[in-house]
Amino acid sequence: MRSGGASESRLAYVVDLLVQLRRDAESAEPELHRRDRALMPEGSRALQQPQLLMRWLDQLRGAGYWFPGSVVATVFRAQLLGLGVVGLAMGWFLTAALFAYDGSRPVNVVHVLAVLVGVQLVLLLLLGLVSVPRWMSRWVPGFRIVQDLLAWLSPGQITHWLAKRLPEPLRAPAMGRGGLGWGKDPWPTRILKWAAMVSAQSFGVAFNVGALAAALYLVSFSDLAFSWSTTLSPDIERGHRITRLLSAPWAAWWPEAVPSRVLIESTLYYRQGGASAETEPVQWGGWWPFLVASVVVYGLVPRLILLSLACWRLKATIGRAMSESVGVDEVVDRLTTEVVSTQAIQAEEGTTGPPEGGASLVRSIPAGQYWGVNWGGLEVDIGQVRQHFAGEGREVMGLEAAGGAAGLEADSSTIEKIASQTGATGAVILVKSWEPPMLEFLDFMGDLRKRMGKGRRLVVVLLGFDGDGRIGPPRAGDEMQWRRRLETLADDELTVSTWEEEMA
Amino acid sequence: MGGGDGVKDAPVFAVVGHPNKGKSSIVATLAADDSVRIGPEPGTTRHCRAYPMTVDNQVLYTLVDTPGFQRSRRAWAWMRQHETTADRHVDVVRTFVEVHRRQALFADECELLEPILNGAGILYVVDGSVPYGEEYEPEMEILRWTGQPSMALINPIGVGDYVESWRRALGQYFRVVRVFNAVMAEFSKRTELLRGFGQLKEEWREPLEKAVISLELDQGAKRLKAARVVAETLVTMLTHRIETRAATESRIELIRPELEARFRAELRRFEERSRDRVESIYEHRRIARSETMLDLADEDLFAERTWLAFGLSRRDLVATGALGGAATGAFVDAHLGGASLFAGAALGAGIGASLAWWTAGRLVTIRVMNLPLGGKAAVAGPTRNPNFPYVVLNRARYHRLRIARRSHAMQGELALPADPHAVLEPLTASLRRELETVFRRIRRGGEDSTRVAELTPMIDRIFAADEMMGVAGASSSGKA
Question: What gap in Å lies between CA B466 and CA B454, rounded to an integer?
Answer without folding.
Answer: 19
